[in-house]
Design goal:
With 762 residues, this protein is mostly helical. The protein is built from 28 helices and 6 strands.
C-alpha cells in the first residue's frame, strides 16, 4: 500500500474533481433545461394544452412502453419513430400545407419553387421563434401553427388509440392498438411530444440558430443542422485521442515491465476446499445461465418484430408478449445476469482470499440469492402484467415498467435491489476484512475490489433520484449516472481487480505488479469515464458546454483500449505458462475475448458514434445497437462468463468438466456475435445514417426506411448469427446440466455406500 500511495492519492483527486464537475453540470442542466409550459395557447386565446398535460403526457408515454416504444431526443428503441423528430416533421409539413391552401388555394407540392422557398423561410422563422413567456409560463402560437398542432395531435390520439385506419402503421411501429386506454392520458400524450419537438427547434433565449437540444434532430425544413461547436469539438476530441494514445504508447515503451513469475509446478487452488458460503454461490451461476437463455430468446423475438410487428412467423404473439415487454426483458436481463455473475464471484472469492469464513456467511449468501430471485421474477412479472392490462401511470412507476431503457423496473423493485446490493457489500466486506487488515502485497488489489463493490452498491442509489414528475432532461442525466457509471464504470473496475487477484492467486503475475497496474488502469479509465458520461447528454436539453466536456473526455475513454492487445497477448501467454493452467483455459480465453471486444465494440464502434458530429446524425440508429451489442455482451458478458467458469471450476467435479462443450460455447458465442454485428447491425446503421444525413432523422426512423426491402433483408441476415450465437448459449446450458447430473450422481453414489443405520441417523 505504501509503494502505491501516490497512485491512490491521484485516484482520489481525480474522482473528487470529476464528480464535482459532473455534479455542477447537473445543476446547470436543472437551471437551463427546456421550460415546461403551464399552457400552450394560440394568439386567439384557444388553449391547445393545459397545465400539467406535458408532464402527464411524459408519464403516459413511459407507462405505454416509453423508451421501449420509440425514442425521445434519440434515447430508446429503434423500430418506432423518434417522436420528437416525427412530430417536428409532421407539424412542419402541416403548417406548410395550411399556408399553401389558405394563401394559394393549392397544395404545397403544387406551388412553384420560389413560392415554396418563401414558405420554407417563413416556416423556419415560425418554428425557431421562442414565444415562451417566462412570467406566466405560456407558449403562444400563431393561429395557423395552432391548427397544424391540432392536426398532428389528432394523428397521435388515433395512433395510440384504436383507430383502425392506422393499424398498418402500428404494425410497422411494433405497437399494439389501445396503447393508452385512459382518455386523459391519450389527450396528454401529444402535449409531451409537442414540447419535446418545440424544445428541439425553438431558439434558446438570447441565441439565434441554437435550440435547447443543440439543433437535434436533423430537420432541413426548419434548418435544424449541427452547430459549429459540434464540429469543432469533434475535431478536437479526435486530436486529443491520437495525442493521448501516442503518449500512452510512449509511456508503455519507456517503462520497463516486470516479467511474469515462474508459475508453480501444480495448481495452487487444486486442493482448496470451498467453504459453506462458497458452495452456496453455485446456484447463482446456474441462475445466470438461465437468465442468459431467457435474454437470448427475448432478443430473437424482439429482432423479429422489426419485420412482423405483431406476429412471430404468423403467430399473433404481440397479444400476449408485445414488443415493449420483450425488449424490456431482453435489455433488463442482460444487465441482471451480468451483475449476478459478478456479485456471485465476489461472494465466492472473499473467503478464498482471506481464508476466513464469517459466522452466518452461508445464511447471508442464501438470503441474498432468494431476495435477488424474488426481485427478478417480481419485477418482470409486474412489468409484463402492467403493460398488458394498462394498469396506469402510478402502477408503472412504482411496481410495473418505468419505461426507461436498462432501468425499467418499478421503484419498489429498485429500492429492494438497492437494499440487496448494500447487503452484498456487507457480506463481501465481512469476508474480505481479515485480508484487508493483514499487510500483504495483495492488499491493494483487495482494497480495490472492496472499494469498487462499495461504489456498485452506493451508486445504484442514483436510480432513486427521479420521480414520476421529474423533468425529462434530469431523468436522462441521472439515468446515465446509473447506466454509464454503474455498468460501464465501477463494475469494470471490480471485474478487472478480481481478475488480477485470480491471476495472483494462481501465481501467474506478481502481486506488487498487479497492485500498481490496477490502480494506474483505474486512474486512466475513470479520468475519461466519469466525465465521459456526458457524451450521452449532448442533445437532451443540456447546455452547450456539455458537448465540449463530453467530447473531450469520452475520447479519453478510448485511450486505454490502445494497449488492450498487449494485455490480451500476455494473458494468452499465461494460459500456456504451465500444463495445469489449461484447467482455466476457457476462463482466460474469455478474458482475452473481453480485450478483443473492448477494442472493437467499445473502441471502434463506440468512438464511431461518440463524437458530437457523428452522434448528431446517428443517435438512435442501428449503429448504436451495433455498439451496444458488441460492448455489452462482448465486454461485460464475456467477463461474466469467464468469472462464472473460474468459480464453477472450484465448485464442481473435475471429472464432469467438458472442455469440448466450452470450446464450442466460446467460439459460437464470439463468431455469432461478430456475424450479428457486422453482417446485420453495422450495415443497417450505415444505411440509416445516410438517410439521416440526406433527409433528416425523421426519415431514417420512418417506415419507408425501417421497412424498406434492404432493411428487412438485413434483419433476416441476423438469423445466421443469431443461430450460431444461440448454439453457443445451448452449449453453455448443456455444460451446466452436465455439472448438475454429476453432482446428483455423486450424491447417489455416496448415499448408497453408507450403511442403512448411518443413513437413518443422517
Amino acid at each position: 500500500m505504501h509503494s502505491t500511495r501516490k497512485l491512490w492519492t491521484w485516484l482520489a483527486v481525480i474522482c473528487v474533481l470529476s464528480f464535482t464537475v459532473l455534479g455542477w453540470v447537473g445543476t446547470e442542466i436543472y437551471l437551463t433545461a427546456p421550460p415546461i409550459p403551464n399552457q400552450v395557447v394560440s394568439t386567439q386565446g384557444k388553449v391547445l394544452f393545459s397545465e400539467g398535460q406535458v408532464q402527464r403526457g411524459q408519464e403516459a408515454w413511459l407507462a405505454a412502453g416509453g423508451q421501449q416504444l420509440g425514442t425521445v431526443w434519440g434515447h430508446g428503441s429503434y423500430v418506432a419513430p423518434d417522436w420528437s423528430a416525427d412530430w417536428l416533421h409532421r407539424e412542419s409539413l402541416a403548417l406548410l400545407e395550411i399556408w399553401a391552401q389558405k394563401e394559394n388555394k393549392l397544395s404545397f407540392e403544387q406551388l412553384s419553387t420560389p413560392r415554396q422557398g418563401e414558405l420554407k423561410a417563413r416556416l423556419k422563422e415560425e418554428m425557431r421563434g421562442n414565444t415562451y413567456d417566462q412570467k406566466n409560463g405560456v407558449i403562444t402560437l400563431s393561429p395557423e401553427r395552432a391548427a397544424a398542432v391540432q392536426l398532428v395531435t389528432q394523428h397521435y390520439v388515433a395512433l395510440f388509440g384504436n383507430d383502425p385506419s392506422l393499424e398498418k402503421l402500428r404494425e410497422q411501429y411494433a405497437m399494439n392498438k389501445g396503447s393508452l386506454p385512459d382518455p386523459a392520458d391519450l389527450q396528454a400524450l401529444p402535449a409531451f411530444f409537442f414540447w419535446s419537438s418545440w424544445a428541439a427547434a425553438a431558439d434558446r433565449p438570447g441565441e439565434e440558430g441554437l435550440s435547447y437540444t443543440s439543433n437535434w434532430p436533423h430537420e432541413p425544413l426548419v434548418e435544424n443542422t449541427p452547430t459549429a461547436g459540434a464540429g469543432i469539438w469533434s475535431i478536437a476530441s479526435v486530436i486529443l485521442m491520437i495525442a493521448a494514445i501516442a503518449g500512452m504508447i510512449f509511456y508503455h515503451s519507456a517503462s520497463k515491465e516486470e516479467s511474469d513469475p515462474v508459475p508453480p509446478k501444480t495448481d495452487p487452488l487444486f486442493d482448496m476446499k470451498p467453504t459453506p458460503s462458497m458452495l452456496a454461490t453455485k446456484k447463482y451461476f446456474f441462475v445466470v445461465i438461465g437468465l442468459i437463455l431467457a435474454q437470448v430468446g427475448m432478443g430473437v423475438i424482439t429482432a423479429h418484430y422489426a419485420v412482423e410487428g405483431h406476429s412471430f412467423f404468423g403467430f399473433p404473439l404481440a397479444e400476449i408478449l408485445p414488443f415493449t415487454v420483450s425488449r424490456t426483458i431482453h435489455t433488463q436481463f442482460a444487465v441482471l445476469w451480468i451483475a449476478t455473475a459478478w456479485l456471485a464471484t465476489g461472494l465466492y472469492i472473499a473467503p478464498a482470499i482471506s481464508g476466513y469464513e464469517p459466522k452466518f456467511q452461508k445464511l447471508g449468501v442464501n438470503v441474498l440469492f432468494y431476495a435477488l430471485l424474488f426481485i427478478v421474477v417480481g419485477s418482470t412479472a409486474m412489468g409484463w402484467l402492467g403493460s398488458l392490462q394498462h394498469k396506469g401511470n402510478e402502477f408503472a412507476f412504482w411496481i410495473g415498467n418505468q419505461g426507461l431503457e436498462f432501468t425499467s423496473m418499478g421503484r419498489v423493485w429498485q429500492i429492494l435491489l438497492f437494499i440487496g446490493l448494500l447487503f452484498w457489500v456487507t457480506l463481501l466486506g465481512r469476508g474480505l476484512l481479515p485480508a484487508l487488515k493483514k499487510p500483504s502485497e495483495s492488499r491493494g488489489l483487495i482494497a480495490m475490489v472492496f472499494l469498487a463493490a462499495m461504489c456498485i452498491g452506493g451508486f445504484y442509489a442514483t436510480s432513486l433520484t427521479w420521480g414520476p414528475h421529474t423533468h425529462y432532461s434530469m431523468i436522462e442525466y441521472w439515468r446515465w449516472w446509473l447506466v454509464h457509471l454503474w455498468v460501464e464504470g465501477f463494475f469494470e473496475v471490480f471485474a478487472t481487480a478480481v481478475i488480477a487477484l485470480l491471476f495472483t492467486r494462481l501465481g501467474l503475475i506478481h502481486a506488487a505488479t498487479a497492485n500498481s497496474a490496477i490502480i494506474l488502469e483505474t486512474i486512466v479509465f475513470l479520468f475519461g469515464g466519469i466525465l465521459g458520461t456526458l457524451h450521452h447528454l449532448y442533445f437532451t436539453g443540456t447546455p452547450t458546454f456539455v458537448i465540449a466536456i463530453g467530447a473531450m473526455f469520452s475520447a479519453l475513454e478510448v485511450v486505454p483500449l490502445a494497449m488492450i492487445g498487449v494485455e490480451a497477448y500476455r494473458n494468452y501467454q499465461r494460459s500456456k505458462a504451465a500444463a495445469w493452467v489449461q484447467s482455466y483455459k476457457w476462463s482466460i480465453l474469455c478474458f482475452i475475448a473481453v480485450g478483443f471486444w473492448n477494442t472493437v465494440g467499445a473502441g471502434l464502434l463506440g468512438f464511431s458514434i461518440n463524437t458530437p458530429i457523428a452522434l448528431y446524425y446517428m443517435q438512435g440508429l442501428n449503429m448504436t445497437a451495433a455498439h451496444g451489442h458488441a460492448a455489452l455482451f462482448g465486454v461485460y458478458g464475456m467477463l461474466g462468463i469467464g468469472l462464472l467458469l473460474f468459480c464453477l471450476r472450484g465448485l464442481s467435479s473435475r471429472a464432469a468438466w467438458s472442455d469440448k462443450l466450452l470450446q464450442a460455447m466460446f467460439w459460437m458465442l464470439n463468431i455469432g456475435l461478430a456475424m450479428m454485428v457486422f453482417i446485420s447491425l453495422v450495415p443497417a446503421g450505415i444505411y440509416q445514417a445516410v438517410a439521416s444525413i440526406t433527409k433528416g432523422m425523421w426519415f431514417a426512423r420512418s417506415p419507408e426506411v425501417i421497412h424498406s426491402h434492404l432493411m428487412e433483408t438485413l434483419v433476416w441476415l441476423r438469423v445466421p448469427g443469431d443461430v450460431v450465437f444461440a448454439i453457443g448459449t445451448v452449449c453453455l446450458a448443456l455444460f451446466a446440466f452436465r455439472l448438475l447430473i454429476a453432482k446428483k450422481a455423486a450424491n447417489i453414489s455416496l448415499n448408497s455406500s453408507i450403511p442403512a443405520k448411518k443413513t437413518k441417523q443422517a
